[in-house]
């Protein structure tokens, strides 16, 4: 019996990477990398602390705070802070582990980490959130810094929470530095940062479509199913519409909002309406019964969109949370005609779903579904966080166009890197599309492993 606790999310993330490496030719060509896998799977440091704060009724509340500083081979630890009641060490280790290789794929000098708390911002007043953030940062500030660990936002952590935490860090450390990303635009934030993950996943899929169709197709005319309704889903949807596609679904933790019929799309105005209620931490269900939405959309309580869409699906973008596409839902997407699926969320597909996608890709040639994992497809968010760090270090601000162009280039490089690595190390059937999950895993892992070897972390 192992003396280690059961950590299902982390074990899933580890096995997904390890199985990819085992099934490639990497260990045959470079058997010493097995030792690197053992080393990289253990965090360099895990910080856990209590967060004591006072609610509006002057009652003391207690939460758990965490920071998993997983790997610093390529640069300071970099990864978000998540405030959600589901947060535990297993989830943060899985997110931090994925972050190592995602950050490596951006080509920027960033290590991997993740943190957060089981605090739930929903239903809390601004003052309660401020008091929690002050208490949380009072402890966390001992372990982070612009050249050590640079957290960002994640689920439950918006610009408001980042502002409260940055203010407390500055007071305690007596230093203004780029210690957090996702800051306000007037005090060190980067343009395009809120949009970056959503835009990035669409830019990535653009290259998938172009490669698979030999440049004959684009997003124009594509029906795109999206889950989630936070920043990633909102901006992915807006970019899809801008590029000529139709968005046929959005969702939240309570249910899915799906276009009725086979024609039409969410409009930018409808997406902005959903964004506005999400700022108020309300549910999509509150809009679903209004005349403006009920005449066009169908709301399915407790459901995800994948099996509830009428007509074909060309592209699927899971953009809510982990394990939101099951094996059966993967088969349903294939049956609906889906040709491209890319994760806006982290580990959005279960291992069963990935197996379904990969088997279909390998046996159906040009008619197959092509799957891109989150560590590659959703790297746009952390990429622009890295660009924010660069701007802070140089005390400059880039224009929206400059940041967007850099993001586009990073996502193109990320795609091409995974594609080339898959062709080198991952065996596929003749005529099949290369495995982007294998290529991305191997490319990210080998870059980190080589840096660790140079540092003497394994040999």
Automatic annotation (TrEMBL):
Catalytic residues, chain numbering: 114 (proton donor)
Sample GO molecular function, one term: glutamate dehydrogenase (NADP+) activity
SMART domains to which the protein is assigned, alphabetical: ELFV_dehydrog
Domain Glutamate/phenylalanine/leucine/valine/L-tryptophan dehydrogenase C-terminal: 190-456
Recorded catalytic activity of this chain's protein: L-glutamate + NADP(+) + H2O = 2-oxoglutarate + NH4(+) + NADPH + H(+)
A Gene Ontology biological process term: glutamate biosynthetic process
Coiled coil (residue ranges): none
UniProt keyword list: NAD, NADP, Nucleotide-binding, Oxidoreductase
SUPFAM superfamilies for this protein: Aminoacid dehydrogenase-like, N-terminal domain, NAD(P)-binding Rossmann-fold domains
GO terms under cellular component: cytosol
Site positions per UniProt: Important for catalysis: 154
Entry binding sites for NAD(+): 197, 231
UniProt-listed Pfam families: ELFV_dehydrog, ELFV_dehydrog_N
Tree of life domain: Eukaryota
InterPro entries, A to Z: Aminoacid_DH-like_N_sf, Glu/Leu/Phe/Val/Trp_DH, Glu/Leu/Phe/Val/Trp_DH_C, Glu/Leu/Phe/Val/Trp_DH_dimer, Glu/Leu/Phe/Val_DH_AS, Glu_DH, Glu_Leu_Phe_Val_DH, NAD(P)-bd_dom_sf
Residues that, per the record, bind substrate: 78, 99, 102, 153, 385
UniProt similarity note: Belongs to the Glu/Leu/Phe/Val dehydrogenases family.
Subunit structure: Homohexamer.
Protein name per UniProt: Glutamate dehydrogenase
